[in-house]
Amino acid sequence: MTMTAPSSIREYEVEARSTDVFGRVLCQARQHHFVIDGPVQNGCPGEEVTPVEAFLASVAACCVELLHVIAQERGTRLDRVAARVRGLVDRSRQPRSDYTLFNAVQLDIQTWGADGATAAALVEAFKRR
User: Fold this and answer.
1) pLDDT(123) > 80
2) What is the CATH number of the domain that holds 70?
3) What is the per-residue pLDDT across 23-33, written as a single tens digit (0 to 9) for each?
4) 106 in any annotated domain
5) Mean pLDDT score of the chain, rounded to an integer?
6) For 4, 20, 63, 80, which has the most beta carbons within 10 A of its beta carbon?
7) pLDDT for 103 beyond 70
8) In whole angstroms, what is the distance from residue 122 CA to residue 119 CA?
């Protein structure tokens, strides 16, 4: 039996559409639906996760998932991972005027089950991915 190597190409598609509530967006990824609200600073509801929070949560989720994948690929013990991402946007201190950027982003990672050197190697591998 021959094994086919997995494709190196990964393609993703999500959709978003406005709702009857100003600043509320209905999103879809595959068969999953979720709501994202614009922030109250923009006159939006701000009751649900905002676009920036969803973006930062995606970075944290990517970190947690990939650390487990990398540990498994290496046969390394890794029981749990937690990631916290903090982002700072200072609209008065933007390097460009044509779009808004984060002024600072901090990713804190905590692992359980791997010794310090192994955990550090896993994090370095994640950063290279």
Assistant:
1) yes
2) 3.30.300.20
3) 999 999 999 99
4) yes
5) 95
6) 63
7) yes
8) 5
How high is the pLDDT of residue 116?
A: 95
- Residue 100 falls inside a structural domain: yes
* Beta carbons within 8 Å of 129's beta carbon, 6+ residues apart: 66, 70
Q: Record the tokens describing residue 82, joined without a space.
A: 């937690």
Q: How many residues does the chain have?
A: 129
Q: How far is CA 79 from the centre of its chain?
A: 20
Q: What is the mean pLDDT of residues 106-123?
A: 97
Q: How is residue 16 written in tokens?
A: 């978003």
Residue 26 is part of which domain span?
A: 13-49
| 39-70: b (≥16 Cβ within 10 Å) or e | eeeeebbeebbbeeeeebeeebeebbebbbeb
Do residues 78 and 99 share a domain? yes
**Which pLDDT score, from 0 to 100, does residue 1 have?**
62
Q: Are residues 26 and 41 in the same domain?
A: yes
The tens digit of pLDDT for each residue in 59-74 reads 999 999 999 999 999 9
Residues 70, 80 contacting (CB under 8 angstroms): no
How many other CB atoms sit within 10 Å of the CB of residue 37? 21
The one-letter amino acid at 68: H
